[in-house]
Design brief:
4 copies of one chain form a homotetramer. With about 425 residues, chain A is α/β, with parallel strands linked by helices. In chain A, the strands form 4 sheets. Chain A has a 7-stranded mixed beta sheet with strand order 5-13-12-11-8-6-7. A 4-stranded mixed beta sheet of chain A has the order 1-2-3-16. The first copy, chain A, has a 4-stranded antiparallel beta sheet with strand order 14-15-18-17, covered by helices on one side. In chain A, a hairpin with a 2-residue loop joins strand 14 and strand 15. In chain A, helix 4 packs antiparallel against helix 12, helix 5 runs parallel beside helix 12 and helix 15 packs across helix 16. The radius of gyration of chain A is 21 Å and the shape is globular. The interface between B and D is large, with 39 and 38 residues.
Chain lengths: ~425, ~425, ~425, ~425
């Protein structure tokens, strides 16, 4: 019996889907301890935008360690943090005229969401949050109340209060997303918020993802998201944009909402921000909201992660070069071109997504499970998401070589076809 | 204006206490970007038990990176994780006959506590948790409900339900800890739990620290903790031991409760576990409790931190050598010998703690603040904790050289004396 | 200064609208202590269906008192209760083949709703309740969470959890009721309840009024209410029908939903049930739901009100005579005929209602307030309800003499016309 | 099968203890429909302080009905209410220099408590309430959260939040009341409230009974209650005194706390206030608290109960005559003299109480049940209360004739002796 079977908690999950022991990895390729190699279309659930062991990041991190750079420093100042913040401000915030402050917290996405909820409640003096169907925002109690999936909510063991869910306004109509576009929902909310006898009060914030990744790769309708922001402004609520999985270049722009013409009050980032897989989380908070914090109110031991700042600084450098995001968009088109014919071929298949995040809804969790297992057996890592796990998500590193991308796509399409044919 | 003043959130805290930019660090010494050097009696709030840039860990981590070891892998298996788990089982669990399973989650202490609360509620089918006055357990909503300090609770913005607090049974009587020993509280609870008309129902779990670090370095009375465990067993509740700050060698044994003769159902670890400052969190959960988890119910992107496993594996190796903990205990005695005379000299001073964690209660937050500032100006990093911030905490790296320890202690004692004399 | 100004709480309300001291009353006429007479189109907010000091009830009550009938007996058996229950079973339940049990509780509508919520939660093992926009269900914390009006909710002082509101499916479209018919809402809920990632879980119960009286006299669409019942059955939730204000003959049948072809699991009654104004409340609960109660779980000192049983028994007798309800329907038509022309005359006026409950929406709370004041000055009691108090409600005693009805209607129409003309 | 077995809810309780159908009653004697007669030592759970069908009240009520007095009027003014309020102010409030306002609400004790909680939360801007072990305050969700007994709490079906319980400071030490006197608890709370790191925040109010009737006839220690009031004042919390069962003359003075030298901010009254068993509830609220109400914020259909005002006015008249309360105190001494020897005779028996409310703790619910059944079979109505139902409560009408009192006491003592002898 392996140490994992002997001693690891029953909660372990992905290792059941990929029952091998991984050893080394480089860019989009991963090797197990038996020497088997895998193309990685999962990228650490969206963390490894720049590939495993990105060479530029490796060098920067090793140099930093060799010169005894401060590794851990809570929220004290460090030169590593200084450099990261300067780069982020210059490359990301200033070109967009974003006045937002950067807040670092415990280095997990859920912690970023918790901090966002706190400051929204503080700044508005309200308690209620509106989140959306199929939204995923984390596992700690405050964030979990915003997560829609009952498989996670059911583990809370206590009621999840002060959050209500409304139908997400997806670009594409899906069977579990009854309101395509969802414009009516916004107008309906407006009426309800105005009516003192409706039982509805304006919330502290609306918490939304541009692209619901875990929720099944549902892309928000642009007009809907704009309407939502307009409603938020009207009723004195904040707009919190959770860009933890879809941000940091994944969709072909740094923020997933760069072409949505919106201006969120708080933006949650994590996953890809640190560049190569060490933890980091950061909220961007408008100064007029941020000023409501008192020093040290939301602490966290690991909130200053120097290695993540060092590698993350290298990640930001990618965005200084316009050709990088052009490449992402180009690869995204390649992915879509290969995968979208599945829609025509199988009535139960729907392809959704943006840039280098695609979701292939294969109609049932069983189909998806089979496809994931077959791909793995064939040297490709993909994972399922969405309602009942029926969507297979493709999120290769943005830096994946063209050849690996093609190989992986071919493998994927082959197995979807096989499974869908067998299922029909 | 520095980038920090321009762009960092108002919530930043420690950087206001130590208003410099740190650059490099080695073992117990830290340098700022102006070349000033500081002896570190804070150790990253208890993270850096093995010092900054511990040589053994540096080498292991760099080797791992150089050979393209998998850095990020969620809860998939990796060779780094395998090695860590095997070492931990062999060095820590097996000698103690501990059957506990290891659960990894988002790498923050608060996340470990959230997971512990979930499994306790699930395993017992109950909702309520009992925590204790001055307890500190984290910032996310579930853990925050257990944290006693109102400065943190007040930021929640929503009611913190399903947790009640009872007086902590401290070894030493303190003015904010009205029940010395606290045995009566346990007996009182027993009567209340037995009485169906008391308004009290047995909780899912009692959540307690052996030593309340953030709470002011309050050491639990041994008998009280045993009585608490007995009460928990009697009423069908779990005992969750939060050893996040006091564990991993800090008190002269691996677990802070090794000499308490108790057997907690769940143990939360984080901070020092990763060895050199990269994030990690782990719960040890008895199999009969752990079996209530369903796969993937408490996920987290960064729950498999390979660098922390690699460095943490080196940390575990320290505990294979009995002389290491002897050294810790010896240094602890040195600290106590130097500091305890302050108690005799100043009636308002009380010294508390165990091993290499000492708390010097200087009677008021103002006194403590002055001492911290004076020490910093004199090249020593210490921080305040406890009710109103009136306790100065001394937690140097366990690996601190004797000379640095002596220098630091002398500096500290000198400034306490100066401030206390001025205050009287 | 009167005793009321000196000693009555600032919370007093209706006495500010009708600033006189009432002394005597008979059927639909009320006199103040100065001898001024008023026609009563308010009937104690729907209590006095059989008029003030109904002769039959007076005689029965006085006889009961004179013979020393037990007046107060909690939930012990009494001959008064026996007679009431036998009459109710024979006249109301048996002809409808209703197997429901009768539960008596503290004699207020809010208490009936609290008991209904408890048994629904117990019977289903669920916590959440769905109530509807503009619904009114009472003032105690459990019922208040179901009441939609923020003017009442705001007094709770604590969050009102475990209840969510959905748009009421009104027969007529109104500006504050955005979804006319509301069929889509039911279908939308069905999809959301089926989807494990929607954030929506089926509730313990749907709590609904056939006619929202306090909410502005909104009549439920028949098909909508049937669809709601179908959804409830499908997802394992109970249907609780709050018939406290609209029941007991008010709409031309005993239950307000007699012609809706539905079969609620729990029906809440109070107000008119006791016949002449002494308190009583009763739930009708299907046996398979009722069996989940343990004896004495929802107690209440005043739950056996003998005078209310005695008078209520006389009230039931009215329903043995078919001509009584024919008369109610006839008077209802008279009311509608007189009032509905206001709709044609004023674009802002909408008339809603059923039987002898009419609501005249006059577009604003200011208009309604003026109309109520003018009517009062002219000897007619009416009261406002609905969002912002913009609906004037007409609920005369069912026993009102034809002449008083005509006089009152003429007064009312006259003042509506005057105010609406002035407002346009 | 009787109509009760056929159609009454399974929740019915007292009728199972007294399985007969009561018909008539006069003062302390009740007759069933078979002509059997019972002496009533239960008095409608404390409602019938002036006996069944009190002659003075009967006459006043019949006169009122005969002259068509307004029976139901919500919170409009009426001459009946005017007279009641004037009498209450003159006889009860003015002699005590009490500036309190009178607030009427839905006529149940639980409704009075709900209103008290609302105004306390509003006036302090706080949410938490402190109630006490064995306290009983009602069945609706807000009041139920304050009630300690799990048999009632368990029926809520949702968490009961925003209330915590502390040990009641009883005059006599009991096995389920671990802290005799309880002075330490108050001092402990004071320390905890002062300490910002204790997890304890001062509440909106302390809600307490002078004598816990349902809780087992526990009499509050005088000093403890004074200390509690002092603590409340210190921390800015209100003192709410629930005098619903013990008030209105029961203990030998109008308020049960008349000799405690305290000055509660809010006093809840109901039960005995209406005199002869028709429902009424009233809060006395200090003007500086009451002014926080907005008109109509806590409504209730039956909040103006004219018959209760009429009969209640007669009840107040009793307190104009000093000899009445002297008589009550005298009868109380008679009761105590007869019953207290049981304490000496049986080690498991403890006698508690004040005035004409005695509780005889017979050590177990089984003993108490047997005594209640034996007494009933022997023509005496008594009921059980307290933890596990182990206390038999004696609360005869205050107007009981000396002979009935003696007969009842003899019956009671005889059956206690028989049962306790059999049990030992």
């Amino acid at each position: 019996m392996s140490i994992f079977e002997q001693r690891e908690s029953e909660i372990r999950g992905y290792c059941r889907v990929y029952p091998v022991v991984f050893d080394t990895a480089s860019n989009a390729r991963q090797k197990d301890d038996q020497g088997n190699e895998y193309i990685d279309f999962f990228a650490g659930a969206g963390v490894l935008n720049f590939g495993h062991n990105n060479e530029r990041m490796k060098r920067a991190v090793i140099d930093y360690i060799e010169r005894d750079g401060v590794t851990h420093h809570l929220d004290m100042h460090s030169t590593a943090k200084q450099t990261f913040m300067e780069s982020f401000a210059k490359t990301i915030l200033e070109p967009r005229d974003m006045p937002h402050k950067m807040q670092f917290m415990g280095p997990t996405g859920t912690n970023a969401v918790e901090a966002a909820l706190k400051i929204a409640r503080r700044a508005t003096g309200r308690t209620e949050i509106v989140a959306f169907t199929h939204g995923f925002h984390g596992m700690t109690l405050g964030a979990l109340a915003c997560t829609a999936n009952q498989a996670f909510r059911g583990a809370a063991g206590v009621p999840l209060n002060h959050v209500s869910h409304f139908p997400f306004g997806a670009e594409k109509h899906t069977s579990d997303n009854p309101l395509s576009g969802g414009k009516d929902v916004i107008e309906q909310l407006r009426v309800l918020y105005r009516d003192g006898s409706s039982g509805f009060l304006p919330p502290a914030a609306f918490l939304v993802e541009t692209i619901q990744a875990e929720g099944g790769v549902n892309v928000a309708d642009k007009k809907w998201l704009q309407d939502l922001q307009a409603l938020a402004r009207e009723v004195g609520a904040l707009l919190i944009l959770d860009d933890i999985q879809a941000g940091c270049g994944r969709t072909g722009s740094f923020f997933s909402f760069d072409d949505y013409d919106i201006d969120p009050d708080v933006i949650c980032l994590a996953k890809g921000l640190g560049g190569w897989g060490t933890p980091i989380a950061m909220n961007l908070v408008k100064p007029e909201v941020d000023k409501h914090w008192k020093p040290g109110e939301h602490t966290g031991t690991f909130r200053g992660q120097a290695l993540s700042f060092v590698a993350g600084n290298e990640a930001i450098a990618y965005f200084d070069d316009a050709s990088f995001l052009q490449g992402v968009r180009h690869k995204g088109e390649t992915m879509l071109k290969k995968v979208s014919p599945l829609e025509d071929k199988f009535s139960k298949v729907q392809v959704r997504g943006k840039g280098m995040m695609l979701g292939v809804d294969v109609g049932s969790g069983d189909n998806a499970k089979q496809i994931v297992a077959d791909c793995f057996a064939d040297g490709l890592l993909v994972a399922a998401c969405g309602s009942g796990g029926r969507v297979v998500k493709l999120i290769p590193p943005l830096t994946i070589p063209e050849e690996d991308l093609q190989t992986g796509l071919a493998t994927f399409v082959r197995h979807v076809e096989k499974v869908m044919e067998a299922a029909s």
